[in-house]
Design a protein that fits this description.
Layout lengths: L3 H6 L2 H9 L14 E10 L3 H10 L6 E4 L23 E5 L2 E6 L10 E7 L2 H9 L5 H4 L6 E7 L9 E10 H11 L11 E2 L25 E7 L3 H9 L4 E4 L5 E6 L7
Antiparallel strand pairs: 1-5, 1-10, 1-11, 2-5, 3-4, 3-10, 6-7, 7-9, 8-9
Length: 266
């Protein structure tokens, strides 16, 4: 099993090969430093137009990086040799809106009408935060980022509707301001935060108990800073109740060949 440090310095292709061989099944935060990661939604083509509009009308949580042709498992806009059937460390299966388990490969589940949507991920802007000297706590402690359901309604499209999911990174006040500055020019990976402080205004009752990911490491002088999160579509999928939809498992992303720097300024 490769170490976190070796995977951090590995190329995207090397990380994907380790994932494809089953050598890495953990979260991907901090892997292939310098390169963008993506959330994933795979669904039948008959629902693709509605889901595309859902993403376009909710660009903060759902910034599209790539959409595949029906039946094609290759996201051609994201790099060489990528295959959506094999290259994520963990997938989630939703049947009729209910989570029906997780797996590490979906080749046997692939359908000729499947369309894959790759959505920008906040892991991509963490490089800028770290390079500027900010303590991205879940990376420092080798944890998955904490994510929370909120009370903020999304713009619906067809069968897709629901509430926003956010990821949270705690910072002292000065670092929180700097984090806002650094992420504002990266809208393709969620951009600026949507909220800071007062989690109860988002309907979050307990920061220590996230809905997805792992509990945060909190300090007394922290402000919680909340970004729109690419797990959001999974809540819309629960409500849509389609026969089969496949997504990434929260925190277990597709590692692309796109440099993070390329995703700045839209």
């Amino acid at each position: 099993m490769p170490s976190s440090s070796s995977m951090a310095s590995a190329s995207p292709a090397e990380c994907r090969q380790a994932i494809r061989r089953g050598e890495w099944t953990r979260h991907t935060s901090g892997l292939a430093a310098g390169y963008a990661q993506a959330n994933l939604v795979i669904l039948p083509a008959q629902y693709a137009d509605d889901f595309m509009r859902f993403c376009l009308m909710n660009p903060k949580p759902c910034p599209l990086l790539d959409v595949t042709r029906p039946g094609d498992p290759v996201p051609h806009g994201l790099g060489e040799g990528i295959d959506l059937r094999h290259d994520l460390p963990r997938y989630r299966l939703y049947r009729h809106g209910a989570l029906d388990g997780e797996c590490t490969d979906i080749a046997e589940l692939w359908q000729d009408d499947f369309v894959g949507f790759s959505i920008g991920c906040s892991f991509s802007f963490e490089e800028a935060l770290i390079n500027d000297g900010l303590d991205v706590r879940h990376v420092t402690h080798d944890r998955n980022v904490p994510m929370y359901r909120t009370n903020r309604a999304l713009t619906p499209s067809g069968v897709f509707r629901g509430e926003l999911v956010v990821s949270m990174r705690p910072f002292p006040a000065a670092q929180a301001i700097r984090a806002i500055q650094l992420t504002t020019d990266m809208p393709r990976v969620h951009g600026a935060p949507i909220h800071l402080g007062h989690p109860e205004l988002l309907g979050i009752e307990n920061l220590a108990a996230p809905d997805f990911g792992e509990p945060p490491v909190l300090h007394d002088d922290d402000l919680p800073v909340f970004w729109a999160c690419g797990v959001t579509p999974q809540l819309a999928i629960e409500q849509a109740k389609l026969p089969l939809v496949i997504t990434h498992s929260p925190g277990h992303m597709l590692i692309t060949d796109l440099p993070n720097q390329q995703l700045k300024f839209g």
